[in-house]
Design brief:
The complex is a heterodimer. By secondary structure, chain A is mainly β. Helices cover 9% and strands 53% of the residues of chain A. Among the domains of chain A are: 57 residues, no CATH class; 334 residues, Beta Barrel (Porin), CATH 2.40.160. The chains are: A mainly beta, B mainly alpha. The interface between A and B is large, with 133 and 61 residues.
């Protein structure tokens, strides 16, 4: 009966739409501009009967969004996980030395160290605040680790050695070997020694290679928002954001607008942006003594001091350096610490135009202008300087002895960049597919000219599936100041006087960089994206791209040599939730019921448990979906405790690291987890759940001995370690054992898959030289590394405004060892809570928690490499209490205080937001661990 | 900004006012243009990620300057 009424109603509505469409068409043909304007106004109430009809015409499916205005997306929440991974570099060459003579005996292709990997987690929320105000919030987190090139050098200079590729220690250990250079700037290997021990030139070898350097794992977090106001034919926005890393901070503001005219066939947009960046980079303490700060400070002879000496003074320029020298008797000395500070301001301007060309095509133009001012160098990139001094006679007799060193790169203080973009989109009705073509030409005053061309074919396949293959080509010329290496060569006559010779004309330029991003190269990329739209406003997207960077791929060839070639892939998986679509599908018969429905849930089946309680809630009825996001953050700081009692750092140093002396102690550790929860009710009794999670951790350390070193390469001031990325993935089944209005009992059986990395290594440094790698502290690995069984038993009850519950949960490791040789202790937790509903939307909870976790079993394998200093396998030196398996786990008591809130209206109506603070009451640690300061959980969930 | 850039900005504006004169596609004929695969960016999340990657690997920054994105020093 109801169905008939609906279908009658909708067919009448449809006929009316067709009719009004026809009338509107007539009107437009008469070029009645008033009606045309009204046609575009689909949000405001109609002003006349005619415009009402036109409005109805626009209500036809598919017609409503204005195609050229980059129509604002509807309210929703998106999550994306992205992964970037480079392939091992093929062009990394090292030199081999003859162990007897100590001479260069050949070169070898090195297994490049673990390449750069980046995990990106991105969450976005878009919501209508009121009427025409919209807010978008965007949260991004990158974590990365791996090796990247720090400089380029002739292979003969021996910057990489086959057995040591680490921090900057290739330079430290085997660089600075002598090689040879001839008058025409060709390089020669070491040959042999003559009778009196003089080194002779060997084979000519001009091959270049990158010097690779591994950075410790690092993290970046970005938060930005955008507030938009929409009118009928225009929109304006203002946005701001901040991005933070240990060594870099960026804050930005932008504003802009969009205007539609010509019946929304033309849209113009303009934007203005301002960014302030601050670099504060501590250079690798292991490498500084081999870096020349020339470029940032100069040496001068201090005549004002009669006992002295050479001193350093700062050179003017965009970046400022702070240096510490171990003074020698001349005042000059060895650089022991250096920090580069720089500021940069960027101003950006954008102008765009899109135009409908026909009913199947549109075109877009865009102009971007950017002006950067300030410190633009990369503080970790070096330039190789090849030096030699010879007399003319020596040089004419044969290649002269040369050596190399590394200087910090120096870039101009200003950059102006202009980009032109042209895009064309065409719809092919027969294939129901769209072709997107985009071309961008960029040029700047650094001499870089770049072309980027991209094609995408968006092909829907039916049933909500869409496949999008794409291809991209990119080519750029090099910056004027790009040099793979520099020369500082001197030719004199017999008296030591400079002579007229091409070598002496080679001057160090004012700006120089060997960063391969500034070199001439081309790149090819290709990939595919698969989207699946589900009926309930959920869509999933998976994308893959391969990318190849090569000098040869440059337009017309002639790019940098093949040593710099590399390739990578990116993979992304995104989940998009359209909040506006979700609701009608769950309550289309009676959309007014939303309140009722949720009200009902709140009396019977609502999940009112505190934010930190998981696996407690089975969905009400078969076919229900729930999507949730949970963020958990915990902090340990302050004293190191043995059991429950604070101990001094001296005690820690002497006894907390077994038979070794502790070099470091933790002073703060933060751990953050992002969890996504997908729940689906298989039937009224059984709910299935998948829960991927991402971790990021940071530990700040206090050095306990003097030779611990003060930083980890890309670190800031603080001696710290960071890790992050994909954690373990849980799969759970929840059964209802008892399902009464006032009492429910659920049992959960879960399995945790070891998707988190447990092989993360500390960066190799002078204090941590083991070539086979030293793994980072157990607690900073991203997962357990084992398959784990997670059972739970939960009881919840309610009466009037009160509700309560209790839960027992545990984690049992199903394997005795993970691939890194250990397993985490089993875990057991019981909690009991009570709560009170102040209103239908707001509730508060209190919870008591007892947790017990076992110590780690097993340990990381001993090193397979022999330490030349001891003749024994390497023993990790850079150790703290957290490197002891026994110093994990313990017994803990906590008090939880929480609130939960249900969004009353708008497209997020019915969504639940919860927060819980966990206050540690007592710690009883195994071994020596850092005091717990507290933890909090924030959760969001929506049911549909 | 150099002269060429200013001139081109002017050209863009001129172009847009030029287009304003030609009304060729009526609103109810835009069904195809309104399809999701004809959206200016069919996969915005992915584009964001790729743009960030290109920005850290290529000298030509794609897109506006003030999007954050960090140092990209790796």
């Amino acid at each position: 009966m109801a169905a008939t009424r609906i279908s009658n109603h909708s067919s009448r509505k449809f006929a009316r739409k067709i009719l009004s469409g026809l009338i509107a068409q007539l009107l437009s043909c008469a070029k009645d501009s008033l009606a045309a304007r009204a046609a575009a106004q689909r949000v405001l109430p109609p002003r006349s009967a005619l415009s009402a009809l036109t409005l109805a015409a626009l209500a036809l499916p598919g017609l409503s969004p204005s195609p050229v205005c980059a129509a604002a997306e509807g309210d929703g929440i998106d999550f994306q996980y992205g992964r970037y991974r480079e392939d091992r570099r093929q062009g990394v060459l090292g030199v081999v030395f003859d162990s007897e003579t100590g001479l260069f005996s050949g070169k070898s292709k090195l297994t490049s160290p673990r390449p750069i990997e980046v995990d990106t987690l991105n969450g976005r929320a878009r919501m209508t605040l009121s009427g025409r105000w919209k807010l978008g919030v965007n949260l991004t987190q990158d974590t990365w680790s791996g090796a990247s090139p720090i400089s380029t050098a002739p292979v003969v200079a021996g910057t990489n050695s086959p057995n040591v590729v680490s921090g900057a220690s290739p330079l430290v250990r085997d660089g600075l070997k002598e090689f040879f250079i001839d008058e025409k700037l060709n390089f020669y290997r070491q040959g042999s020694r003559d009778d009196i021990g003089t080194l002779l030139p060997g084979v000519r070898d001009n091959q270049l290679t990158h010097t690779m350097s591994t950075a410790s794992p690092e993290a970046r977090k970005q938060l930005d928002f955008k507030l938009t106001h929409e009118w009928d034919d225009s929109a304006a926005y203002v946005g701001a954001g901040v991005s933070r890393e240990n060594d870099f901070r960026s804050r930005f503001l932008n504003l802009g607008g969009r205007w539609d005219f010509n019946q929304k066939q033309t849209a113009v947009n303009a934007g203005l942006s301002y960014t302030r960046n601050r670099t504060s980079a501590t250079l690798d303490p292991d490498a500084v003594s081999f870096i020349d700060t020339f470029g940032y400070e100069e040496l001068f002879f201090d005549e004002t001091d009669e006992f002295c000496c050479f001193r350093h003074r700062k050179r003017s320029g965009p970046g400022q350096i702070e240096t510490t020298y171990e003074q020698n008797e001349f005042g000059d000395g060895t650089l022991t610490a250096a920090k580069i500070q720089g500021k940069r301001e960027d101003v950006g301007l954008q102008l765009g135009l899109s135009q409908v060309l026909s009913k199947n095509s549109l075109v877009k133009f865009r102009l971007d202008y950017a002006r950067n001012k300030g410190y633009m160098a990369n503080p970790y990139k070096l330039v190789t300087r090849v030096g030699a001094a010879a007399t003319l006679d020596q040089l004419q007799a044969g290649p002269a002895i040369a050596s190399m060193d590394s200087i910090l790169e120096r870039r101009p203080e200003k950059r102006e960049q202009v980009s032109w973009s042209l895009g064309y989109q065409h719809y092919f009705p027969r294939a129901d597919a769209a072709l997107h073509l985009d071309y961008q030409y960029t040029h700047d005053d650094w001499g870089i000219r770049a072309h980027a061309l991209q094609a995408q074919w968006v092909q829907p396949l039916g049933r909500g599936w869409t496949v999008t293959p794409h291809a991209r080509y990119y080519s750029q010329s090099s910056a004027d100041f790009y040099h793979p290496y520099l020369f500082q060569l001197v030719v004199t006559d017999e008296n030591g006087e400079l002579i007229d010779h091409p070598w002496n004309q080679l001057r160090l330029p004012e700006h120089y960089s060997s960063d391969q991003r500034l070199s001439a190269f081309g790149a090819l990329g290709a990939g595919i994206t698969i989207n699946k739209r589900f009926a309930k406003g959920i869509s999933l997207e998976i994308g893959y791209e391969r990318y190849k960077h090569a000098g040869d791929l440059k337009l017309s060839g002639g790019g940098e040599q093949s040593f710099a070639d590399f390739s990578y892939y990116t993979l992304n998986a995104a989940l998009r939730v359209d909040m506006e679509q979700i609701k009608p599908s769950s309550g289309s018969e009676a959309s007014n019921d939303v309140f009722e429905r949720h009200g009902d849930m709140h009396t019977n089946h609502a999940d009112l448990a505190p934010a930190g309680v998981m696996f407690n809630h089975a969905l009400a009825k078969s076919g229900d979906f729930m999507l949730g996001y949970r963020y958990m953050s915990s902090e340990q700081a302050g004293n190191v405790l043995q059991g429950s009692d604070a101990v001094s750092l001296d005690t820690v140093r002497l006894i907390a690291c077994g038979n070794q002396e502790c070099q470091v102690a933790p002073n703060k550790m933060t751990m953050n987890m992002h969890m996504l929860e997908f729940m689906y009710a298989w039937n009224n009794k059984l709910t299935l759940m998948v829960m991927p999670q991402w971790m990021d951790m940071q530990m700040n350390l206090t050095p306990l001995t003097e030779d611990t070193g003060s930083g980890h390469g890309h670190g800031g001031d603080v001696h710290n370690h960071q890790t992050g990325g994909l954690g373990d993935t849980g799969v759970h089944a929840l059964f209802k054992l008892l399902d009464r209005p006032e009492h429910q009992v659920n049992v959960g059986l879960g399995l945790s898959a070891p998707t988190g990395d447990v092989g993360i290594e500390l960066r190799k440094t002078a204090t941590n030289p083991d070539p086979s790698g030293q793994r980072i502290h157990y607690g900073m690995q991203l997962g357990s590394g084992t398959w784990d069984f997670i059972p739970t038993l939960t009881y919840v009850g309610s009466a009037e405004r009160f509700f309560w519950g209790a839960q027992l949960t545990g984690t049992k490791r199903l394997e005795s060892r993970n691939k890194s040789g250990y397993r985490l202790g089993d875990h057991y937790q019981s909690s009991i809570w009570g709560g009170y509903k102040f209103t239908r939307r707001l509730a508060a909870t209190m919870r008591g928690i007892y947790t017990r976790q076992g110590a780690i079993q097993g340990r990381y394998p001993a090193s397979t490499e022999i330490d030349p200093n001891t003749g024994e396998p390497y023993v990790p030196q850079h150790v703290g209490p957290f490197d002891q398996p026994a110093s994990y786990g313990g017994k803990f008591w906590d008090l939880g205080l929480g609130v939960s809130f249900t969004v009353p209206s708008g497209s997020f109506a019915g969504n639940a937001l919860k927060f819980e603070w966990l206050q540690p009451l007592q710690d009883d640690f195994n071994g020596y661990q850092l005091e717990r300061k507290g933890a909090w959980t924030l959760s969001w969930s929506t049911m549909f | 900004m150099d002269k060429a850039t200013c001139a081109s900005a002017a050209l863009l504006i001129a172009l847009s006012s030029g287009f304003a004169g030609c009304t060729t596609v009526a609103p109810w004929e835009r069904g195809n243009l309104a399809k999701p695969h004809m959206a200016v960016d069919p996969n915005p999340m992915q584009s964001l990620l790729r743009a960030h990657t290109y920005n850290t690997r290529e000298a030509a920054a794609s897109g506006g300057a003030a999007q954050g994105g960090g140092c990209g020093c790796y």
